[in-house]
Amino acid sequence: MKSSAKSVFSTAVGLFLDEYGDKVDLDTLLVGTSRRDSLIPQIWDQPLTDERKKMIKVKNVLSMTSGHESNEPWLAPSPRHHYPGYSGSYQMYEYCFGWWHFEGIPSHHTLLFEPGHGFNYSSFGLEQLALAMRNITGEEVGPYVYDRVLKHIGMPIGIRDNQFKEVPYRSEKKFNFSVEPGWGRGGSLGCNAYGSDRSASPYGYNTVVSSTFPCTARDYARLGYLWLKRGRWRNQQLIPDKWVKNATKRFTRDDGETPSNYGYAFWIQDEWRNVPSDAFMTQGNNLNDSYIIPSLDLVVVRQGNENNTSEGRAYFREKVIEKIVEAIPDNK
């Protein structure tokens, strides 16, 4: 599913915020002002690399307004360096905390902008939120969301327990890396799942929630149908209706503006020509996408390995759903 996995993670976050609403909500600070009030106290093991990180809220990482950089250069050939005064392993959490960097590649040492005042698509705030969830629930995301949702919609047990430690990230076409279901798991000894050198992280393994979630197209469509029905499956409300509604509409900034077609880890497609404005979708590299249009009771899933330009991908996405909508008899 590539980055469409972000929307599965959003589903897990909706459950988490409902279950632990007495401890955390969308306006809760992620880093906090000190170790004591932080959802991720691990980041305080070193001095903060940017004071603005104290301002990041849960809603900012979900809406891509946290200010984190985009780059995912894990297997890049350039040398790795700790920033002066910092130490630790060369692993994912240490990287997105801003403690080390690849030479010549933009890093997470500083934010791109003050949280809530811009938009930049990035995986790393989501990974920090996943760590916060593990800190509070005591579970990794895979088992957490499987036991509460995925098993009820008929997805295989492998999605709960399979954890892929080998992820061939840099390849000619970035192929899907497994025919088995499950999550990628990285960040500790002997593991290359979005890590960099197999070093041991003191924070142990972490589920790579932003992209590593292989499953079949049929199981992917089950997720799409669950989102279409606002979290309801048969006679069970598996995800709070309010969460799905909020996650699949444009994020409203504190200034009341909605400049980006992004919700809480879902893309909002309300400006496509000849497509109903309630359309939303998940997007993954290589066009591993899903399209959901509630007004047409329509779910479309597309998996593949094509690695076109960003312009080519955008053109394909709009045209393919436009043609499908056009072909629906009752829509004419």
What characteristics describe this protein?
single chain, 332 residues, alpha+beta, Beta-lactamase, three-stranded mixed sheet, 11 strands, 27% helix
Sum this structure up briefly.
This protein is α+β, with helices and mostly antiparallel strands and 332 residues long. Helix content is 27%, strand content 10%.
What distance lies between the first and last C-alpha atoms, to the nearest angstrom? 32 Å
Helix content: 25-40%
Mean of the pLDDT scores?
90
Alpha carbon gyration radius: 19 Å
Extended strand count: 11
Report the portion of residues in β strands.
Answer: 5-15%
Low-confidence stretches: none
Helix-strand string: HHEHEHHHEEEHEEHEEEEH
What can be said about the biggest beta sheet? 4 strands, antiparallel
Which assembly state applies to the chains in this document? single chain
Count of all domains: 2
- The spatial strand order of the largest sheet comes to 8-9-10-11
Structural category is alpha+beta
Number of H- or I-type helical stretches: 9
Question: What shape does the CA trace take?
Answer: globular
